[in-house]
Amino acid sequence: MKLRPIIPAIFLGVSGWVQAADLLETYHAAQGNDPVFAAARATQQAGQEKLSQGRSLLMPSVNLNANTAYNNQDATYQGFLSSASGSYSYNSHGYGVTLVQPLFRQQNWLAYSESELQASQAEMQLKIAEQDLILRVAQAYFDVLIAQDSVQLVNAQKTAISEQLEQAKRNFEVGSATITDTLEAQARFDLTGAQEIAAQNNLEIKRNALQQLISAMPKDLKPLGQEFRPEMPQPADMEKWVDAAQMNNLQLAIAQAGAEVADKEVARNRGGHYPTVDMVANYSNSNTGGIMPNTTTNRSIGVQLNVPLFQGGVVSSKWREAEANHERARQELENARRNVVQQTRQAYLGVVSGIAQVKALQQALASSESVLEASKLGQEVGVRTNLDVLNAQQQLFSTRLDLYQAQYNYLLSQLRLKQAVGSLGEDDLSKANQALR
Fold first, then answer.
1. 289 to 66, 68, 73, 74, 299: CA distances (angstroms)
2. Distance CA 223, CA 150 (A)
3. Which of 104, 251, 289, 432 has its CA 20 to 30 A from that of 30?
4. Is the CB of residue 50 less than 8 Å from the CB of residue 122?
5. Burial 371-381 (b: 16+ CB within 10 A, else e)
6. What is each CA distance from 286 to 100, 300, 372, in whole angstroms?
7. Is 286 exposed, middle or buried (0-12, 13-18, 19+ CB in 10 A)?
8. pLDDT on residue 15
9. Mean confidence (pLDDT) of the chain
10. Which of 310, 289, 325, 243 is nearest to 90 (CA)?
11. 330 Cβ contact partners less than 8 Å away, ≥ 6 residues apart
């Protein structure tokens, strides 16, 4: 019984549906419509601004100040021979420009180097989001396929059981079988009806999950081709994959950058005790009215030294805080390294065991088909019962569904292995897409 060559499309009257032909097209649709990935892009853009903010700490700062005031002055003049008094109203105003160029501020240099690491982390976070999108699309795509397979297999099983039920009824009418055969077939038929409802409901759930990624509902998806053959990962050495993961895994690289940031943060807070040296330039102009109006212009340029002596203990406290955070980052890095090793081993074993499982299920499928044919023949000659045929049919459909699931799991394990070593990209998804027909 060949059920796989044509997976029927289930058409639903929902406006706005589009047809997604294959896995790669579905991924491209998700790139432009998935809100999680869009948020990751915005986060990356925000992270890049850290570099500009860190660079600004090394650049000069220029400030402009201006003032104006209305003055009312009562004055009395006492002379040797006479005296005079009067009231005067006048306006005074002025402006000034101050430029400060840091010459030595260790904290600023360390903050700038931290910003470089933070911008690098933002880039790696976006790459992780891209890899995560690939896996989410593949998972959602294959979930829909296996749900379609389940619906098709349940329908085929229902049809086969219906034939057995009709045959059991005819045999009972002519007296060549007992009512038990009919009741058994009817019970299986009713159970398959319930399974059909559950399978249809599960298909709708999986389709909705895919719709959430691409903002549209696909009418049909390309299934795996009949010529699908799983291949061993290259190199076929788990330890080489583990070594590659420890060098290139993105999560591990982010944790490494986090540990470096924490180390620089320790040095930056320690620099709170260090003096700072700035070049300061001023230009000011002021105008004053009154009895004796005058205009004053001042220009100055010099070097300013500031030595922190005591700030209430806040510098030492921040230093101790940074030391504790550095230890936390170091432990998180070690935890990330161990997790990466474990995930890489699991992914590699998932690929290898997936190959063995697919081959075993292919053999089991061939055996189940033979058992079904033999059971039907045995029923005709009277050495097998209707229940034997029903059990053989159930075993065949169950094995076929397990085979489909094993094939999808193998493809997902391949993608997860590439993610573990930090190399998962659209090319890997395109290779998986070639397995579809």
1. 17, 12, 11, 14, 22
2. 13
3. 251
4. yes
5. bbeebeeebee
6. 21, 15, 105
7. middle
8. 34
9. 87
10. 289
11. 259, 262
Q: What's residue 156's pLDDT? A: 85
Scanning 215-313, the segments in alpha helix (DSSP H) are 238-248, 250-270
Looking at residue 7, its pLDDT comes to: 33
SS3 243: helix
Tokens coding 63? 């400030």
SS3 content of the chain, % helix, strand, coil (to 5): 65, 15, 20
Kindly give the parts of the chain with pLDDT less than 50.
1-18, 20
Count Cβ atoms below 10 Å from residue 9 Cβ, excluding itself.
12
Q: What is the pLDDT of residue 172?
A: 74
pLDDT at residue 4, as a whole number:
44
- Bridge partners (DSSP) of residue 286 are 94, 296
Give the gyration radius of the chain's Cα atoms.
39
Q: Which two tokens stand for residue 21?
A: 């032909």
SS3 60: coil
Per residue in 170-208, pLDDT (tens digit) is 777 777 667 887 787 788 888 888 989 999 999 999 999
Q: Do strands 294-306 and 83-104 pair parallel, antiparallel, or not at all (unpaired)?
A: unpaired
Q: Domains for the chain: give ranges and CATH numbers.
A: 23-59+106-161+207-273+316-433 (1.20.1600.10)
Cα 223 to the chain's mean position, in Å? 26
Distance separating alpha carbons of residues 112 and 323, to the nearest angstrom = 19
Is 375 in contact with 392 (CB distance < 8 Å)?
yes
**Which pLDDT does position 401 carry in this prediction?**
92
Q: What is the pLDDT, as a whole number, of residue 272?
A: 85
Q: Which of 334, 197, 170 is nearest to 255 (CA)?
A: 334
Tokens linked to 291? 């009895």
pLDDT reported for residue 13: 32
List the alpha helices (DSSP H) in 271-313: none
Q: Comparing C-alpha atoms, which of 354, 355, 359, 346 is closest to residue 417?
A: 346
Give the up-direction half-sphere exposure of residue 94: CA atoms within 13 A in the CB hemisphere. 15
> CA-CA distances (angstroms) from residue 60 to 56, 106, 108, 282, 330?
8, 15, 12, 13, 35
Query: What pLDDT is stored for residue 21 in this prediction?
Result: 59
Joined together, the tokens standing for residue 223 give 């299934």
Cα–Cα distance between 282 and 100 in angstroms, integer? 9
